[in-house]
Amino acid sequence: LVAQNRDGQFLGVARYYMNPESREAEFAVVVTDRCQGQGLGYHLMQRLIDIARQRGVQRLVGSVLRENDPMLHMAGDLGFRVEGGATDDVLQVMLELS
Question: In sequence order, what are the residues at sequence separation of 6 or more whose Cβ sits closer than 8 angstroms to the Cβ of residue 62?
């Protein structure tokens, strides 16, 4: 999913890649600095969840920097479970879709 303004300028993007064997998908969301804090990331993530569910994804997973409080708060609001990650600086967020 790509969000652009009326002039075609990039505002944000959300995507996932699903492993066809496990039906688990890793997601990423990026919003330009000037659009952060306005709900665009939340909207993109809600749409991504809906699309993933429709396409048979069983679990969404993502890596979030421990210091990224807005993303961790959004993940919690959307029902993601937060766990430790590969390093002390990175947390893993997971959402069961099935």
Answer: 26, 27, 28, 29, 75, 80, 92, 93
pLDDT of residue 82 exceeding 80, the answer is yes
Give CA–CA dist 85/74, Å, rounded. Answer: 18
What is the amino acid identity at position 33?
Answer: D
CA 13 to chain centre: 10
Q: What mean pLDDT, rounded, does the chain reach?
A: 93
Let me know: does 97 contact 53? Beta carbons within 8 Å: yes
Specify burial of residue 69 (Cβ count, 10 A radius: 0-12, 13-18, 19+): exposed
- Band (pLDDT 50/70/90 cuts) for residue 4 is confident
- Strand 59-65: give its sheet, edge to edge: 2-4, 10-19, 24-31, 59-65, 90-96, 81-84
pLDDT of residue 41: 92
**Burial class (CB within 10 angstroms; exposed 0-12, middle 13-18, buried 19+) of 40:** middle
